[in-house]
Write a structure and sequence with these properties.
Number of domains: 2
Protein name: DUF5666 domain-containing protein
Radius of gyration: 17 Å
Keywords: Signal
Number of strands: 12
Length: 220
């Protein structure tokens, strides 16, 4: 998947979408629950079942332990490393990015959705990896070799309902493919990502989880 002004309409980019209290107030609606929390880390323990709910121990990137509770019937998404050539015209992608020159965004990661997930999280919104980061989910209308470096990478035109963004993708950034998956990927040592709602006891609750395949780390 959130998150003060910079995450006011997000939830799992790729994947979870939820309104925050700030965005709800801006829309004139009643305040909602606290903004979701980004969970990025390594699985240390797994208990429970998909049908009844799961309790996942996670060590965050900062080294702190967390308890992640997956609601019954939660869904799973795999994240597999791919090459930049997999980004083609008509790919539906998500990309976290930072502002670049002349209105171009510079990608910090790209995830390519399967056709079954086309439309997930479509749009452009703040992201929680920095005060200036954004997440864009949309259709790749154009791919141009090179870009800001004039030597490598690709420049994408990404269209979504209500707008479009020009995104430069360096060859050095993580690029992954998403696919529907199941709980069999959820083992000790797996790298995971989600946005979750924090509970009064400090635990975190979510209903969808991205799991890295082959030791890879979901890059969002």
């Amino acid at each position: 998947m959130k998150i003060l002004l910079r995450a006011a309409a997000l939830a799992m980019a790729p994947v979870l979408l939820t309104a925050t209290a700030a965005s709800a107030q801006m829309m004139g609606a009643a305040p909602q629950a606290a903004p979701p929390v980004g969970v990025r880390g390594t699985v240390t323990s797994v208990a429970g079942t998909v049908d009844t709910g799961m309790k996942i121990g996670v060590t965050g990137k900062n080294g702190k332990p967390m308890v992640l509770l997956l609601a019954p019937k939660s869904s799973f998404v795999s994240s597999t490393v791919i090459g930049i050539d997999a980004i083609k015209p008509n790919s539906f992608i998500g990309t976290a990015a930072e502002p670049g020159p002349n209105g171009t965004l510079v990608a910090t990661e790209v995830h390519v959705f399967p056709e079954s997930m086309r439309g997930v999280g479509e749009g452009h919104r703040p992201w929680d990896t920095s005060a200036t980061s954004s997440m864009t989910n949309g259709n790749v209308d154009d791919v141009t070799e090179g870009g800001l470096s004039k030597k490598n990478g690709r420049t994408l035109t990404v269209n979504y309902k209500g707008g479009k963004q020009t995104v430069y993708v360096p060859v050095t950034v993580p690029i992954v493919a998403f696919a529907p998956a199941d709980a069999t990927l959820l083992v000790k040592g797996a790298k995971v990502f989600t946005f979750a709602q924090k509970q009064p006891d400090g635990s975190l609750v979510s209903n969808r989880l991205v799991v890295g395949v082959g030791g890879s780390t979901p890059p969002m």
